[in-house]
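Bumping with the actual sequence this time:
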Amino acid sequence: MNSLIKMIPRKPLLHLLFLVVVFSLMGCNIDFTNFLEPFPPEINLRIRPAIQLRGADLSLLPEVRKSGITLKNAAGKNEDMFKTLLDSGMNFVRLRLFHSPTDSVSTLEQVRAFKEEINSLGRGTSILLAVHFSDTWADPSQQTLPKAWESLSFELLGDSLEAYTERVCREIEPRIIQIGNEINGGFLWPHGSLQNPSRFRELMNRGIAAVRRASPKTMIMLHHASPQGAAWFLEMVSPLDYDLIGFSYYPMWHGKSPSLAIRTFDSLATIHNRNYMVVETSYPFTLQWNDWTNNIVGLESQLGDGFPATPKGQAAFLKTVKNLVFESRMGLGICYWGGEWVSFKGAQATNGSPYENQALWDFQNRALPAIRELGW
């Protein structure tokens, strides 16, 4: 090993490439998340990155655990969801953060506890934190102000945004942070609506400044929900100091062809010289249901081209999206959304899971083949 060390080039970019090649030849299983922290400034991550981030949003896992239901791995052995996913090769977790939710789900305290669990495992798993800047779900249809901020002036709203973002960064220390979730129309409506782009950018700059000050190693992501409208959005945010682009891809909303969607994402990322991630995607393994809550996907017409709603079809869809992202020039990672959202409130629940047929566990609570696609 000493002789190997003497061979390592002194220039940072050559150094990194040398290590990747050597360890590949040695047959080692490298956790590339370690290469994200820190990068020498000379390395331009934005040219076909060697890093491949593969993760899942696990924001509802604490609620699933609290319900007491038993989950199984692919072998049929009782196992916690998080362990099953980690053993598959997943190397980051996406967590949602609400400001002051009424049901105590996705609170700062809950996210902090999950962070401590992740750190205690010592497996190099990173956190992608999706800050909604709302007390509830924020998406293209709603970006509701936190109740605590409703009466604030624009200037005081900026102060609160900056102080809150700084606190979140210091307490969670995420590897990647989304300033807003699916902000197609802006965030913190009406103040940060894209009807007034200059005010939106002013608020966004306050959040960016807080991240840079409190957690310099954290990468900042701006998340647009779809290929549609993304070109205008990315041009509008081009003056901002951010690192990554996040996209969502669901066939029922964003087009039935994964290859067309990913080509669009990669083209936009190339134009704006940013790596991108598909931070939300999912697919059904069945069109049936397991509780009495209406499911979001339940029709053949909502499926992607060539991917049946079967366990094999779900796995093939995720494999296709993953491969397209990692084969593209600027693709950095994928994240499965709703994989943990099994029917955990009972078969009669009308407030259960609208995502049970897109989860990564079947109706017998056994891990599905798609989980393997979060590995290498």
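The tokens above came from a reply further down the thread. The first helix runs from residue 2 to 7.
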